[in-house]
Amino acid sequence: MDVDTSEAIDRVNDSLVQLRTELREGLARGRTELDGGLVGVRAELHDGLASLRTEFKTELHDGLASLRTEFKTELRGGLASVRTEIDQLGKDLRAELREGVAEAKRHAQLLHEDLKDDVRILAEGMAYISAKLDAGE
User: Fold this and answer.
1) Total-model pTM
2) What is the pLDDT of residues 33-73, one digit of tens each?
3) How buried is 108 (Cβ within 10 angstroms: 0-12 exposed, 13-18 middle, 19+ buried)?
4) Distance between CA atoms of residues 74 and 80, nearest Å
């Protein structure tokens, strides 16, 4: 091999070594920048998730509070309606009971009058028989 070729090969080797070194340095800088960017992305992602978590908790809490309020309102309205129905049923029941008692009282009075008539008829018959026995018949 001649001197020119040997020198050319050495220059190519030196260039390759220099290129390899520059490439490693560039990759190291890129890795460092990428790591720094990932740290930033991680921080942004963490902050974003924390913000979403807070928003979710707030919305969930507000939604549950709203549902609780609506449920209480509907329950109170329903209870008021049931209370009104029970009051009306009580009034209706008392009225029916009064009517039933009045009818039973009228029926008892009729039976009492019939019984008095039957007792009067028996008493008259006994008096008649007693009078006949006393007269000697």
Assistant:
1) 0.42
2) 777 777 777 888 888 899 999 999 999 999 999 999 999 99
3) exposed
4) 10
